[in-house]
Amino acid sequence: MLPSLKQKLAKMSWKKLLAGALVLGLVVSAVAFIIIKNKKPAGIPVKTARAEIKPVQDNVFATGRVRLVEKQEFYSYEETTVKKINVNPGETVHKGQVLGLLDIDDLGDKLSNAKANYAVQQSNLENALNPRPEEIAQLRADYKKAGADYQNAQKKYQRTKQLYDQNAISAQELEAAELELIAKETEYKNADARLKIKESGPTGPELASLEAQVEQARIQMELAQQELDRTTLTAEMDGVVIAVEVAEGDHVNPGTRLITIGNTDKVEVTAGVSEADSGRLKTGQQVIVTAAALPDREYAGVLHSVSPGALVQTGNQGSQIEVPVIVRITGDSEGLRTGYTVDLTITTVDIEKALVVPYETVVEKDGKSKVYVVENGTAREKTVETGLNVELYTEIKSGLKEGDTVVVSPGDFLMDGAKVSALNNVPAAGGTT
């Protein structure tokens, strides 16, 4: 019996399906073979960055306070009363101008007495060096009289002694005669000495004593004059009145600050730099100064001085060691008022072109700085000479060239010659990928 048409068609379809499946299997096998044949083993996934040429700048930051370079402050040196104030803050003053007066009390009399004493001491010295003839004549007369008195006393003593030996007088009378003799002898010797001093001039020690008395009197006179002058507050420079801290009639104690004037065109900043940053400071470094009171302004300055010593500063956050520095404003200082708190940016390094890599690419091995350069999918260890570490970068002085691809944070697992696979779209240190 012949098969039906339906059976023939079913048998034919099954054969076609089998043949198609065999063909599809061969194609898939071929593709898989090609993929497996061409596929290479995957490397260690790593982040990478490129060595770049960048400007390098290193800064030290500090906070300071503005003060005047040139100023004059007036203080009271003794307890007194403010008699007159002639100026107000902000006024321009000129050298020699009287800004105020203090009560002089008895300073005028004190100066007059000091001047008189100085004149007396000068006269004594002058008389010792250049005695008048009449003085010498008087001293000679005194010397002769003292000599005659001494001779008479000697004779009197001899007569008294004889009477005593004859038991004619008492021992008390003999003793009185002896004392008189001693007194007349002393007067005679003193008269002789005074005459010789006048005739020959004072000896070394005597002259030194007289000169010392004159010098002491001169110093006392100058001190009295200085005390009197201090009651007149006189400007020693041209400038502006910065502060008037007393009023007329105020009773002030010694050491009270009265008036401050200064040159507002010349200001500087005093600040303290942390111990860790102080070793990077050198005089002459450029400084940018900013103030919260002037947010849109920047002022140019230069590091004028760095203290050779450090100080312990105590604040709200405890104690810390700081090195005092002074920054001079070199350009326009308009708006910077004395007493302002300002921020300092001190540029310690400024290199226009430097080869740098993210600091995370450099590791220390065997006491040397190393990086891993990716070459054709392989990490190659290279020794480099590093320079500055600034912000996110490390300067490379030798061992790399611009454009080299380096591994970021290689870690201890990465070895020289290892196969690596760079991760895409992963930010590296410094903002590169």
Automatic annotation (TrEMBL):
The UniProt keyword set, sorted, is: Coiled coil
Q: Which GO terms describe its cellular component?
A: cell envelope; membrane
Keyword set includes Coiled coil: yes
Primary residence: other
Task: Establish whether keyword Coiled coil is in the entry.
Answer: yes
The YknX-like beta-barrel domain extends over 268-346
Where do the YknX-like C-terminal permuted SH3-like domain residues begin and end?
354-421
Query: What Pfam families does UniProt report for this protein, alphabetically?
Result: Beta-barrel_YknX, HH_YBHG, YknX_C
Tell me the GO molecular function terms.
Answer: transmembrane transporter activity
Under Gene3D superfamilies, the record lists: 2.40.30.170, 2.40.50.100, 6.20.50.140, Helix hairpin bin
Q: Which residues form a coiled coil?
A: 136-234
Cited InterPro entries:
Beta-barrel_YknX, HH_YbhG-like, RND_pump_MFP, UPF0194_transport, YknX-like_C
Q: Where in the cell is it found?
A: Cell envelope
Boundaries of every YbhG-like alpha-helical hairpin domain copy: 103-228
The UniProt entry, under NCBIfam families, shows: RND_mfp
PANTHER family membership? EFFLUX SYSTEM COMPONENT YKNX-RELATED (PTHR32347), RND EFFLUX PUMP MEMBRANE FUSION PROTEIN BARREL-SANDWICH DOMAIN-CONTAINING PROTEIN (PTHR32347:SF27)
Instruction: Say which family it is in.
Output: Belongs to the membrane fusion protein (MFP) (TC 8.A.1) family.
What is this protein called in UniProt? RND family efflux transporter, MFP subunit
